[in-house]
Design a protein that fits this description.
- The protein is mainly α.
- 57% of the residues lie in helices and 11% in strands.
- It contains three helices and two strands; from the N terminus they run αααββ.
- A two-stranded antiparallel sheet has the order 1-2.
Length: 104
């Protein structure tokens, strides 16, 4: 693997961990599980030697990072049935459509 490609992989790895720390801030359980999952996925792909396949994996890593940053939110129950949500600036917000239960 060329030095530039190696640098790109390491940069994507670090960036994904940085996103993980930002998204799951204050949630030790989620931080640990996400760290374990990221490390496992990178170790699993450690044997890949084809430069094009490595570039695809780096692109996938960046897509996962983007998904984490733009769609994952955390909510914690502050009272029974009431939740507090921490929305970050980069969360994609869509129009809210009320749920209608058709079974009634």
């Amino acid at each position: 693997m060329s030095q530039n490609l190696r640098r790109e992989v390491l940069k994507a790895f670090k960036s994904l961990h940085k996103a993980r720390r930002h998204v799951f801030e204050g949630d030790d359980n989620a931080l640990t599980k996400a760290r374990t999952q990221i490390n496992q996925e990178y170790k699993k792909c450690k044997v890949v030697t084809d430069p094009e396949a490595i570039r695809e994996l780096v692109a996938h890593s960046r897509a996962v990072e983007s998904e984490l940053i733009s769609t994952v939110i955390q909510a914690k129950e502050v009272q029974p049935g009431k939740y507090e949500v921490r929305l970050r600036d980069k969360i994609v917000k869509l129009d809210n459509v009320p749920f209608k239960d058709c079974a009634q």
